[in-house]
Specification:
8 strands, alpha/beta, DNA-binding, CheY-like_superfamily, Sig_transdc_resp-reg_C-effctor, Response regulator transcription factor, six-stranded parallel sheet
Length: 220
């Protein structure tokens, strides 16, 4: 897992489903200090103002107002506390919207558990996290104002590049030509708006697209 500050982050948790909230509390209590657990958007807004937490873990859809609306109001007021959205909504456009609005992480409830803890570690390390299966489908290239999609084959190439394999090794692994690998790499770099393999690996890690993988040696 990425390094995280040694102190336990003070967290406000928001989810209107009681059983889900109880499960999340048990999951988080070993690594976080839960200062409040609320069940609505308005309650979340007040809890953040009252407790000034280090991190917010919230559902997207809640009674009275959604988590995205709460985050936007806090951002407008100058409150920059990181928001980790934990949601059942797997629509890429919603993830993109949340990240563009200032969210630090977007995690699907279907893949929660250890992944939520990983997302918190990544966010506490100053980076952004997206559930890999979602991030693989849509990536917002900074400054481009449009969606960029990666194919399954491009995701395979990206993962192997991040694992430290050279283009020739990737070609052998996937049963394609080196030229095809280079073509995929170029398309991925365009999608991620990067200009070198090192930047590519860093951006993939930033978006949580290659969990657990790290480059082990320079690649072309």
């Amino acid at each position: 897992m990425p390094e995280m500050p040694a102190d336990r982050p003070r967290v406000v948790l928001a989810d209107d489903h009681r059983l889900v909230a109880e499960g999340l509390q048990r999951l988080l209590e070993d690594e976080c200090e839960l200062v409040a657990c609320v069940a609505s958007g308005n309650a979340l807004l007040e809890a953040v103002r009252q407790y000034e937490p280090d991190l917010v873990v919230t559902d997207l859809s809640m009674p009275d107002r959604n988590g995205l609306s709460v985050m936007r109001e806090l951002r407008a007021a100058g409150v920059q506390v990181p928001f980790v959205f934990l949601t059942m909504h797997a629509e890429p456009t919603l993830a993109e919207q949340a990240l563009r609005a200032g969210a630090s992480a977007y995690v699907l409830k279907s893949s929660a558990g250890e992944e939520l803890l990983r997302a918190i570690h990544v966010v506490r390390g100053g980076r952004t996290y997206i559930t890999p299966t979602l991030g693989a489908r849509v990536i917002a290239a900074p400054g481009r104002g449009q969606k960029q999609e990666l194919t399954d084959k491009q995701m395979q190439v990206l993962q192997l590049v991040s694992a430290g394999l050279r283009s020739k090794q990737i070609a052998a692994e996937l049963g394609v030509s080196v030229r095809t690998v280079e073509s995929h790499k170029y398309a991925i770099m365009q999608a991620l708006d990067v200009h070198s393999t090192l930047e590519l690996v860093r951006k993939a890690d930033e978006y949580g697209l290659t969990p657990g993988l790290r480059a082990t040696r320079p690649v072309p």
